[in-house]
Amino acid sequence: MAKGVLLVNLGSPDSTNPKDVKRYLGEFLMDERVIDVPKAFRTFLVKGIILNTRPKKSAAAYKKIWWDEGSPLIVLTERLRDKVDALTSIPTVIAMRYGKPSIKQGLQKLHDKGVDEVLIVPLYPQFAMATTETILVLAEELRKEHFPQMSFTSVPAFYNHPDYVRVLSESIKESLEGVDYEHLLFSYHGVPERHIRKSDITKSHCKIDGQCCQTASKAHQYCYRHQCYETTKQVAEYLSLEEGTFSTSFQSRLGVDPWLQPYTDRTIDKMGKQGTKKMAIVTPAFVSDCLETLEEIAMEGEEIFHEAGGKDFHVIPCINDRDDWVKTLARWIDQWAVVETEMA
Ligand SMILES: C=CC1=C(C)c2cc3[nH]c(cc4nc(cc5[nH]c(cc1n2)c(C)c5CCC(=O)O)C(CCC(=O)O)=C4C)c(C)c3C=C
Ligand SMILES: [Fe+2]
Ligand SMILES: [Fe+2]
């Protein structure tokens, strides 16, 4: 039995050309775990409405953040892979849930190296059906159809893992060194409230009422909202942040359904209008900097803050390919390899 690792991130378009952006958004938004409505309605919404207007707007946004080497999200995931691969003896490849390299290509690469035991690492600290779950479901479908000899194990959501909390907290501490700020906002990618209820394995716990996420429940193993608030809480404890100097919000909503609140854009606007002059912002739902951090937060967010009367807007980078994060991932991989070998 030979072991290998598949690091999986969200993915990006092949280029900033609106045609490539349209193809990417089509694959992304037709995923039933992203826009979770009946297929006929999803097809109408995505192909009949969203893909007629959004690709041009998104392409313009991608143009603002694109690097010479390509999409920041892909380049940063490649850098992470190179560093992790150099630290462990287990072959490590990357894959994207949408776009390239696909999960099928990643598994094929591992297969070609003789790997038949795969550790899947969804690069999302918090579980969501639109991220972690869709990766695992697709990987299993591909395994059954193309790689029946392979077996999979996956790294669970690591939102509260002490190693991850330490890496994220240290990254915040370093970025804030010498920075004068009044408020630190933890901005997570949003999801429709409906997704939270759908992922509730108890079918009755998640009410999104401000209390459920603080009341112990086995539902929290799959509750994105709980896991986001827990990441904030544990980082705040690690950094000894004072109550009232930090808060949590949710960004990037799409469509008219209610998404998790408070919304990041409105929060930034409100803070500026209420007199906050210096704020810092961190985006812990993203391991790699991407469109949502480099454009929506660092550009649009800053503009909202300035227009609302704010002055200094400090954006903390994602953990990307930081050495302590690379070492953490390599250690998790090595631990998995040892345990699996001992059990074999
Ligand atoms: C219904 C729509 C969407 C859900 C639900 C959603 C959840 C979700 N997404 C991420 C991480 C990323 N999303 C990114 C871009 C992006 N997300 C959506 C829509 C939903 N996301 C769209 C339409 C886009 C494309 C850009 C745009 O048109 O605005 C990215 C960036 C990709 C990049 O190339 O840089 C990331 C990363 C999470 C973590 C999440 C749920 C928890
Ligand atoms: Fe998204
Ligand atoms: Fe909850």
Brief account:
Helix content is 49%, strand content 13%. The protein has helices at residues 18-29, 39-65, 72-87, 103-112, 129-146, 162-176, 193-198, 224-238, 264-273, 291-307, 323-343, and strands spanning 3-9, 92-96, 117-122, 151-154, 183-189, 246-251, 278-282, 312-315. It starts with a strand and ends with a helix.
Can you put this structure into words, describing what you see?
With 344 residues, the protein is α/β, with parallel strands linked by helices. The chain folds into two domains: 3-157 and 322-343, 3-Layer(aba) Sandwich (Rossmann fold), CATH 3.40.50.1400; 162-315, Rossmann fold, CATH 3.40.50. Helices cover 49% and strands 13% of the residues. It contains eleven helices and eight strands. The strands form two sheets. It has a four-stranded parallel β-sheet with strand order 2-1-3-4, with helices on both faces. Strands 6-5-7-8 form a four-stranded parallel β-sheet, with helices on both faces. The N and C termini lie close together (9 Å). One fe (ii) ion binds next to helix 8.
Q: What is the overall shape?
A: globular
Strand content: 5-15%
Helix/strand order, N-terminal first: EHHHEHEHEHEHHEHEHEH
Question: What is the tally of helical segments?
Answer: 11
Mean pLDDT: 96
Instruction: Give a count of the beta strands, DSSP E runs of length 2 or more.
Output: 8
